[in-house]
Amino acid sequence: MAKSEAALLTLPGMEDIAAQEIEELLNKKGVVCSSFVLFPFEKKEDLFHITYFSQSARKVVEIFSFVKHHHESYEIIIKKMIVQLDQKKIKDIISQNATFNITCIKENYSSETSSPDIAAELAKPIADFTRAKAVYQNPQIPFILFITKEEAMFGLDIAGIDLSKRDYKIFIGAQSLKGPLAYALTRLAGFEEGKSILDPFCGSGTIPIEAAFHACHRSINFFRKKNLFFCKEDVALHLTETLDKKQKKEVKAKIWAIGDSFTHIASTKKNAKVAGVYDFLNYSRTEINYLDAKFEGDTFDCIVTQPPILSQRANENKLRRLYTQFFDEVAFLLKKKGKLVLLCKHPDHFLPEAERVKLPLHSQRQIWQGQEEFTILIFEK
Question: Could you report the per-residue pLDDT of 209-252, keeping only the tens digit for each?
Fold first, then answer.
C-alpha cells in the first residue's frame, strides 16, 4: 500500500463507475476491489474534494491499516491490523480525553459476531494507547472498520455520515433507488453534459436528479456541508465554498423526467426543488404509448429507467403490454449509437422485446442495493 492511500466505498457492482469518478475529479488512477476503490493522495484537500463531490460513494476513508485475509476470523484480522497501525498518526488525530467511534461495516463477510462487537474489539487497544474514550454516539472522531471476504481496512471516516443517503429524497415511491445506483445508471449510459437523457418511468425522480447534479457540477452535499466531519476544519469549509463557485448556472444537457401519473411528476418536482436542480429538468405527465407524439424520432442519447416490476400482485397482461409499448417507443426515440440502460429484476421480461425491435444487448451486470440484487441491461442502438 502507498504511503498515503484512501478508499472510496461504493455499492457492490459499481466499482468501475467509482474509479471513473475518482479519475475525473482527482486525475488519479484507482485500484478496483470488491465494494471499494483504492486511490493515492498527496494532500488532505484531495480527500475533501472527492468526499464533497462524489455521487458514487458510501464512505471515503483515509486508510491507517489494510490487510488481506483468506476468510479468517475477525480476531485474527484485528490482530494483523493492530500490528500495522501507525500509533503516532492516530495520536495526531485523537487528542487525549477526546471521544471516538468505530463503525464496522461487513460486506460479504460472514461472522456470527455483530458489527458493534467487532468494532469494540479494535476500539479497546486504540483507547489504551491514545487515552481517548470510545463512544457509541456523537463522537469527536469517526473511524471505519470495513471488512470484505478477502480484505479489511481501518481508517478515518472523512465525511462522518453515509454519503449514499440523499437529503432531497423527501417524496419517495415503492421503487425508490439509492442515489449512487441512479448515478451509476446514467454513467453506464454514457451521459455527460451536452447529451440528452430521458427517464420515462421517473417515479420520484432520482435518476434525472442525479443526472442534473452531474451535468451542472453541483455537490450532492451542498446543503449539508456543515454536517460533514472534515468541514469542521476551516480550510476544508473554505475549499467547499470555492468548489461551489464552479457550479454551472445553465447546462446544455436536456434532462427529461416523464411519468404516467401526476403523483410521480409532483414528487419529482418537489425532490428536484429540495435538491436545488429544479430548473435543470424538464417534466411531463405522459403515458408511454404517447411519447412518440411528444418527441421527434432520434431525440435522445440516453434512456435510463427502472420499469415497473412484474410481481405477483401486478396485472401481468397489462405490464407485458407496457413493456411492448416501451420498447416500441425506445426504438423510435433513441439516437443511433444511443444507449438504453434498464434496471430490472427479471431480464427475461425485457430481452425478447429488445430483440423484437432489433436493439442489441451491449452488456449486462449484477448490482446490489442493500440486500436486493438487480440486473442492469445496457442496449446500444
Answer: 999 999 999 999 999 999 999 888 888 888 999 999 988 888 88
Every domain range in the chain assigned CATH 3.40.50.150: 179-224+247-380
Residue 43: which residues within 8 A CB-CB, separation 6 or more? none
In which residue ranges of the chain is CATH 3.30.2130.30 found? Answer: 5-157
Q: Which CATH superfamily is domain 179-224+247-380 in?
A: Vaccinia Virus protein VP39 (3.40.50.150)
The residue count of the chain comes to 381
Residue that the C-alpha cell 450532492 belongs to: 220
Give the fold, CATH level 3, of 5-157.
VC0802-like (3.30.2130)
Per-residue model confidence as pLDDT tens digits over 9-26:
999 999 999 999 999 999
